[in-house]
Design brief:
The complex is a heterodimer. Chain A is 79% helix and 0% strand. Chain A contains ten helices and no strands. The mean pLDDT of chain A is 86. Chain B is mainly β. Helices cover 5% and strands 55% of the residues of chain B. Chain B is globular and about 115 Å long. Classes of the chains: A mainly alpha, B mainly beta. Chains A and B meet through α1, α3, α5 and α7 of A and α1, β3 and α6 of B.
Chain lengths: 213, 751
């Protein structure tokens, strides 16, 4: 009897935690499904809040903080008022730092977001901030590449950067093409490390590739 | 068994029981809806983001007593216990605004602040070097801002009816003496320091904080750069000379060191551009600096900057008293400056800034009366000419130490206090025409203490209240100076501020020593400001009234003009407007400033209250900058206009035993149009090892015959216009930076 009760308790706790884990995965999946369309729907702020809620409830998971940081920096990109960008980037930095702390080690995907944060800060006042944030953004892209050579996202970011840089400054459509092709190749081979891991970017890549047709 | 199962089932069903809706509205304390705010049940996934009307709604499966929380940057976090059963919950929430740097009013009366973080107005290094009229000189660029005068006959910042000596310059909090190259007769020398040494420039034209003293008119606060982004080597060439430098960043990016050296020889320039003076020693300058910067913690930093320079120059000019003679002036200067500063956050809202600086300056001046064949003339029979042969050796040592403690209180409110010590020791050895030697030494020690508090009542109302006490050993006097400013922010984010303050200053050492008892000269400032700043546009207007009391008057003692009493007085009132716009036209940045100044004073040898010779009634500047991406070229233009300034012949009347005004007049209006072009051929070449910038600038393009003032002969019968040393000035240079794409930096390194 005693053994049986213990078994029931274990079963009970296990099923509870299992249910909890199920809920986590379900909640993450439903939000991750919305990530790809947030650029168009302009709901990145709301998604960032959703991920942050999950993150704050879980605390030990790095992915909710990671996605929250990602959505937040997309919100900064979309923010038309330059004077508000810094505060949003600060929040993104805070979230991505928490993701890194939860993971406990360096990660290519996290450096991708750090590069985006530097770029967002540069956009506030490119002329006077280029010197500080231009190299910082490029450094994180390089670091992201070196931490995981199969990750297509740093290559995509680099390509986008070149695409929007005027030809006179060493950028332009033609220069970017090579990098987009490289990103395409990486995306076709890319396998996420586990469930819920980042896969975003292919939609953006297809958009840019369509510009060459 | 069955009981355990029941519990298990109960638990399981409990988890999947019906969901409960929670909804309501989020507002701020003025009942304005707050969109985009996250609201959630603590430690659960359930929550929502408020919509554009501040409304939120979500369902939850949580039950029992839970914590509902709403958080947003700029507001105090809201948390409330709710008991969730099976009934929907309606909860309207009002968030309290937090006082934050982003939203709070800025206490700004009298101040032009510019740095990357606080992007108010004014000038960063790039703004300075791309101001066409500035030629890479910090204070010349500041002369395009309201409140400053276009004085060209001597160096320094003449602000709102004040003399250059009433403006003090600080680097990382400590006073800089000899900021400008040593004075030469009838011309303004440049500032010694490269604009790229500083990340922030704060120019206060009045009403400044109790942290600064011994300046009746204005302070210029320069904040040196932190660690460089990367290791780099820089070279520059121009037809004036060359420079080379190295900045090394450590591998862990926690420390750096750097050195630069530059050499300037104006021989070629003076051959090509006709100079008013006849140079028998063409200016030659050797200059070097060294720095190190160490991060002592995540937030702390120690910085050292050291500088030395030697100059050698000599020129002849027509003597004002006789057409038969020339004055030959020779100057050898050695200067060094060291600045060591340390800032650290101590935790619990405390931080401190401390620094020491030391400068040593030596001017070796020789003056000769010469004839047409450049032969020395000794005419001991006539004192007027006899005294024109002399030499003087001035040695000055200045040290400054300062510490400021800062304690952050609630929100942005803070208290600040500290102490400052200034020591100066100036020795002068003068040889008059007959060889007799006069030696004098002026030592001054000023000890100051100060305290101030920033009080942010809400994001919209703030006050800064402070006081400063100073004691001068030299004049055996002490003072206490209150400073107050208030700022109010309107709903459209524009703001109004007022400032009031009393400022004291000791006498300039050139009017010392004296037998008479002196006390501090005093200025009282009243400033009203209205400004509206958005990220790409600035509008600012200021009204001010400044009252001078106890200004120093000079008299003749033992053949020297020295300060004799504090009977001088004066006032200045005016209005200023500044408008900067980077928004209207893409890649086009311009600013306009206008100053109106109405001032009179009685000081030094003025016989009574008159408009001072360094004050123009109307001054206006227009600065334009346009970057053309296709050409990789930036085009800059600036135009400055000032109405004529008064000039006087004031001389000592031996019969009356006082000064008399023998003649007066007004110069014609001042005009200067300057153009400059920066060409960056390697811009964007990502693989380029070297980054190159070409600079071409031309001042006074239209060739206006500007007159700064007039010098009178001793008998008052002859007056000679003081004009710029050359009508136009052309600069052509090339700068190469290796190792890092320092595009902006390279535009002007040691221009």
């Amino acid at each position: 009897m005693k053994k049986l009760s213990l078994f029931v308790v274990i079963l009970c706790v296990a099923s509870f935690t299992f249910a909890q884990n199920d809920r986590y995965i379900a909640a993450m999946k439903s939000n991750i499904a919305m990530v790809d369309s947030m650029m168009l729907k302009k709901n990145s702020a709301e998604l960032a809040n959703n991920f942050e809620r999950i993150a704050d409830a879980e605390k030990t998971q790095w992915l909710p903080y990671y996605y929250a940081g990602y959505c937040k920096i997309v919100q900064a990109y979309n923010e038309p008022d330059n004077s508000k960008k810094d505060a949003i980037a600060d929040k993104s930095k805070e979230l991505i730092d928490k993701a890194e702390a939860a993971l406990g080690k360096e990660n290519s995907e996290i450096d991708v977001i750090k590069s985006m944060i530097a770029t967002a800060r540069m956009m506030v006042d490119p002329q006077s901030r280029y010197m500080t944030y231009g190299p910082e953004s490029a450094d994180y892209i390089e670091k992201a590449k070196s931490l995981d050579a199969t990750n297509p996202r740093p290559v995509l970011l680099e390509a986008e950067g070149k695409f929007y840089t005027p030809e006179q400054f060493g950028g332009g459509k033609d220069v970017a093409k090579e990098s987009f092709d490289k990103a395409k190749e990486l995306f076709s081979k890319f396998q996420p490390e586990a469930e819920l891991y980042p896969t975003w970017g292919n939609g953006a890549l297809q958009y840019f590739l369509s510009q060459y047709k | 068994m069955s009981r355990s199962l029941t519990i298990f089932l109960l638990l399981a069903t409990n988890l999947s029981l019906g969901q409960v809706k929670i909804s309501g509205k989020l507002t701020d304390n003025h009942n304005k809806p707050l969109p985009g705010i996250s609201i959630s049940i603590l430690n659960s996934y359930d929550g929502a983001t408020s919509d554009s009307l501040g409304k939120y709604s979500f369902t939850t499966i949580e039950k029992g007593e839970q914590s509902l929380q709403a958080t947003s940057a700029g507001y105090k976090s809201f948390e409330q216990k709710v008991n969730i059963s099976d009934q929907p919950i309606l909860l309207d929430i009002s968030l309290k605004e937090q006082v934050t740097e982003l939203k709070a009013v800025v206490i700004s009366a009298g101040t032009f602040e510019a740095s990357d973080q606080k992007r108010a107005t004014a000038l960063n290094p790039l703004d300075i070097v791309t101001t066409a009229s500035a030629n890479g000189d910090i204070t010349s660029a500041l002369k395009t801002l309201p409140g400053t005068q276009q004085v060209g006959e001597s160096e320094g910042l003449f602000v709102r009816g004040g003399t250059a000596s009433e403006s003090k310059i600080f680097i990382d909090g400590t006073l800089v003496n000899n900021f400008f190259y040593s004075s030469e007769p009838n011309q303004a020398t440049r500032g010694r320091f490269n604009p790229f040494l500083f990340k922030g420039t704060i120019f206060s034209s009045g009403g400044y904080s109790a942290l600064y003293g011994q300046a009746l008119s204005s302070v210029l606060l320069l904040e040196s750069i932190d660690l460089p982004e990367k290791t780099s080597a820089d070279f520059g060439f121009s037809y004036l000379g060359g420079n080379a430098g190295l900045q090394k960043l450590s591998k862990n990016k926690k420390s750096s060191w750097g050195i630069t050296y530059s050499y300037v020889n104006l021989a070629l320039v003076y051959n090509l551009i006709k100079q008013k003076f006849d140079y028998f020693k063409v200016p030659v300058l050797h200059e070097g600096d060294a720095n190190f910067r160490i991060k002592t913690s995540a937030t702390g930093m120690v910085k050292y900057f050291g500088y030395f320079s030697t100059t050698n120059v000599g020129f002849r000019n027509q003597d004002v008293d006789s057409l038969n003679f020339k004055d030959a002036f020779g100057l050898k200067n050695f200067n060094m400056y060291h600045n060591l500063s340390w800032k650290e956050y101590l935790g619990k809202g405390w931080k401190f800034n401390t620094g020491v600086s030391y400068s040593n300056n030596r001017d070796d001046i020789e003056n000769e009366l010469q004839d047409h064949n450049d032969k020395k003339q000794v005419i001991n029979s006539d004192p007027l000419y006899a005294y024109k042969n002399f030499d003087v050796l001035n040695k000055g040592r200045h040290s400054n130490a300062k510490i400021v403690f800062d304690k952050r209180l609630n929100g942005l409110s803070a208290i600040r206090f500290g102490a400052e010590y200034n020591h100066s020791d100036e020795r002068s050895t003068y040889h008059q025409y007959d060889g007799s030697q006069y030696y004098q030494r002026i030592k001054e020690n000023i000890l100051s203490g100060f305290a101030e508090t920033d009080i942010y009542v809400t994001n919209n109302i703030a006050a800064k209240i402070g006081a400063r006490a100073e004691h001068s050993q030299l004049i055996e006097d002490w003072n206490i100076a209150p400073r107050v400013s208030l700022a109010y922010k309107f709903p459209d984010n524009s703001q109004a501020s007022v400032a009031y303050g009393i400022f004291y200053q000791d006498p300039e050492s050139k009017y010392l020593p004296t037998r008479d008892a002196l006390h501090f000269a005093k200025a009282t400032h009243y400033i009203f400001q209205y400004q509206k700043i958005t990220s790409l546009r600035t509008f600012r207007t200021e009204l001010f009234y400044k009252k001078y009391d106890d200004l120093f008057k000079t008299g003749l003692t033992n053949g020297r003009f020295v300060a004799v009493n504090n009977n001088g007085f004066g006032d200045a009132k005016g209005a200023e407007i500044f408008w900067r716009d980077k928004k209207t036209i893409k890649n086009f940045d311009y600013w306009i400033s206008y100053s109106y100044l109405d001032t009179k004073r009685d000081f030094l040898n003025y016989p009574f209250g008159i408009e001072p010779s360094f004050a123009a009634k109307h001054t206006a500047s227009l600065v334009l900058k346009k970057f053309v991406t296709k050409m990789k070229t930036q085009f800059n233009a600036s135009y400055t206009y000032a109405t004529g300034r008064p000039y006087y012949n004031i001389a000592f009347d031996d019969n009356g035993g006082n000064y008399k005004l023998y003649d007066e007049g007004r110069t014609k209006d001042y005009n200067n149009l300057s153009l400059s072009v920066n060409y960056l051929p390697s811009l964007g070449k990502t693989n380029a090892k070297a980054f190159t910038v070409f600079v071409l600038s031309l001042t006074n393009v239209l060739g206006a015959n500007n007159v700064y003032t007039y010098n009178y002969s001793a008998n008052g019968k002859n007056k000679v216009a003081v004009t710029p040393p050359s009508k136009r000035f052309l600069y052509l240079g090339c700068f190469i930076s290796l190792g890092i794409d320092r595009s902006q930096d390279a535009i002007d390194n040691h221009l």
